[in-house]
Amino acid sequence: MTHLLAIVRLGILCGLLLAFFLFVAVTTVWCRWVLPSQTLSVPYRWQWWARRVVALLGLRVNVHGVPPPAPCLFVANHLSYLDIVVLAAQMDAVFVAKAEVARWPVLGLLGRAVGTVFIDRARKRDLPRVIAAMIEVLRRGQRVVFFPEGTSSAGGTVLPFHSPLFEAAVRTGVPVRYASLTYRTICDTPPASRAVCWWGDMTFARHLYGLLRLSGVQVTLSFGRDTVAADNRKRFAVQARAAVLRLFSPVGSNADRPREHPAWPARLQGGLPAEREPDALHQVFCSPGESLPHPFALSLRRQREAAHSRNNGALSVTSQGRPISILPTCP
After folding, report:
1. What is the pTM of this model?
2. Do residues 225 and 244 make contact, with C-beta atoms less than 8 angstroms apart?
3. Does domain 41-252 have CATH number 3.90.1150.10?
């Protein structure tokens, strides 16, 4: 059954890629020849496609905070190629990627279509060109996103940040903002450290097919509320990593994965308002035999009475007497 799901998703993904390229071609011609006074930014086109891929993959994105205003230099920890899709779905931005991606079939064409800045990490002489390209984007009033770790990992920690690309912030004076990413899969599926995180000698095609087979992935994206303060690129790298680490949670292991995907906010109906403040919902996963963390609170725009109970190793949350979420956990 999971193989059928992967095949269907792969077909739809190919259709989305074709639709995206047609969308870029049509809007480019429209803005250039029909209504030259109107413009449609490349990042907007990228966001249009990314949001549909997030829906196709069944990602449940738990967002804390709000994306920072443009222009800014934006950094995050790096776990997978999926990081780019998740971030692009949340905000307009131009990404910096390794030069090898430009030579990949389809993905290289996609990257060039959305204005990605490619960097050859093996050649230090390529840095001035890349920094100049980043500065140009920032001066146009856009966000530039890059991953200072320089590689993806299994999500156990945040690797040290490389400093050269922070020079774009030093020269332009734009704020440096940050976010943290982590993933979790449900029980009876491969853990996110292998099924979602892409690292080591994993091959892209095989990993992507495994990702398409997953029945659901929970993503936690936490935006920092402040800016990173520093006066040179090396201090920026140190301070930015420290800021990301304050928000970071290691990628979920088998022990803390829910048995059923907590498909919020679809379950948050009736007892809760549709709108929410940043960090409004804190989902707690408890294993059998654990004591319930205290305090367990739901921070809402309108304070409402909440009660918690334990049933067979599951956490049942109620609001005004109505159950709103049941999160069973792995044995």
Report:
1. 0.72
2. no
3. no
